[in-house]
Structure formats: structure tokens, C-alpha cells
Amino acid sequence: MRQQFSKKWVGSRQPRKQRKYRINAPKHIRQKFMHANLSKELRGKYNRKNLPIRKDDKVKVMKGRFKEKIASVSGVNLKKLKVYLEGITRKKVDGKEIQVPIQPSNLQIISAEMDDKERVKIIERKQKIKKSEKNL
């Protein structure tokens, strides 16, 4: 199998090819993998279904061992496609506490941090597009 990312790849049932696509994806596509669903209140406010996860967002874990826990994002690892949350840790055999990496698809954004001007621009741009589509 080739090692480079293919723009022509549409999809496959084979998990190995799906993993290969995600691992070899360039940064602009990896960023799309880091989106999480918004809560119902935020969906109405921003007119969107999901947003990219950023540091300091408040999220709720929807699946897994830490289901129903609410925490703020302490870090985002674009290389591993994982999110780290404050207070969500586990003990290693030697007694050290480490943060548990969680997939962004298993999270729901409860409150989004809007200090970033770029994030505000993205939301405004998307709202303008949706308004123009409704007028047509």
C-alpha cells in the first residue's frame, strides 16, 4: 500500500484502509476530524451542528468509561486525534496519574470559548451562508 495521502480516496469497508486514511491525512483534513457536536442550546445559538474542539471549551463525555462527566478541555493532540480533559485521569501501575485521551466524536460541547477571533469569524461566515441559502 502507498504511504501518501490520496485525494481520490472515497471510502472503504476495510478498517485498515480507514485507519490509513486518518493517519496519512494532511492537517487541514485532520482538523475536520477534531469536531464535536454542540448541545441543543448552542445549536440554536450558532445555527450549526458541530464546532472544532479548542482548549478551554467545556465538554460532556457522551460515551465510554467517563460517560456523563463534564470537564474543560486541557489539550488537543492533532497528531493522535485525541482530546485531553481536566480531571479525567487514570492511575498507572507505578502510581502516576495520567490524563486519558478521548476521541472528539465521543464528546459534546456545552460551552464554547469565544476568545479566539478566528473562531468567531468562522461562525459568522457560516451564518451568513445559511441566511443567503434561506433567501433563495
Unreliable stretches (pLDDT < 50, length at least 5) are none
Report the C-alpha radius of gyration, rounded.
17 Å
Number of domains: 1
- CATH architecture level-2 label: Roll
Please report the first level of CATH classification, the CATH class: Mainly Beta
Oligomer: single chain
Distance linking N and C termini: 46 Å
Write down the overall mean pLDDT. 91
What helical percentage do the residues reach? Answer: 25-40%
The coarse overall form would be globular
Task: Briefly note the CATH topology name.
Answer: SH3 type barrels
Structure characteristics:
SH3 type barrels, alpha+beta, 136 residues
Task: Outline the structure in words.
This protein has 136 residues and is of the alpha+beta class. The chain has one domain: SH3 type barrels (Roll), CATH 2.30.30. 32% of the residues lie in helices and 29% in strands. It is built from four helices and seven strands, in the order ααβαββββββα. Strands 2-1-7-3-4-5-6 form a seven-stranded mixed sheet. It is globular. It starts with 14 loop residues before the first helix and ends with a helix.
Quick overview:
The protein is of the alpha+beta class and 136 residues long.
Helix/strand layout:
Blueprint: H1 15-24, H2 27-33, E1 35-38, H3 40-46, E2 50-52, E3 58-61, E4 70-77, E5 82-91, E6 97-102, E7 107-111, H4 117-135
Parallel strand pairs: 1-7
Antiparallel strand pairs: 1-2, 3-4, 3-7, 4-5, 5-6
